[in-house]
Design brief:
174 residues; 10-stranded antiparallel sheet; alpha+beta; single chain; elongated; 50% strand; 20% helix
Amino acid sequence: MGLSDARLLRPNRLRAVESDLAAALDAQLASKDPGCAGTFKTATVAGTGKVTCSGGTATYDATLEEISTLSYSPACFSAASGGAALNASPCTQIRSNMNDTADTQGSCCYNGTSCNCTMTTTHVNRDVNTLSISGSTISESDGTSYEFCINGSSMSQRESMGGSAYVVTGLTKR
């Protein structure tokens, strides 16, 4: 599961354990192309905004930003491209592909052996979803569900990204 899924937005403060997030993204990529294991080097997530819950409805006004560093090896590129060799030209194409959507910006540099990239993806969430609660799980009408814990005026939410990676959000009642 990549971060292109806008349902990951649960703002005030978002934090993810970088090694777990990078490992989860890397495992997803390696499951499609085993030669790509080790491509994701780092991945961070930060979010701002608010979610207003009232009358069984959650209204989002939030932004989530993910920054990843990747290093495409010759083996990964060959596996993903059907056997093509990695050099400066395909590395430039990888950068172009990253910049094909309005919410993603990327830069890549070929160092003679690998194509090293930095990719920033920004998601804006203005969704309005109905909520249901069962035990310590909140489910939203868009199919998202997450665990929650309330302590005083603070609420923590934990949503699985697959494997051992979670997005944890801290919300404060105002």
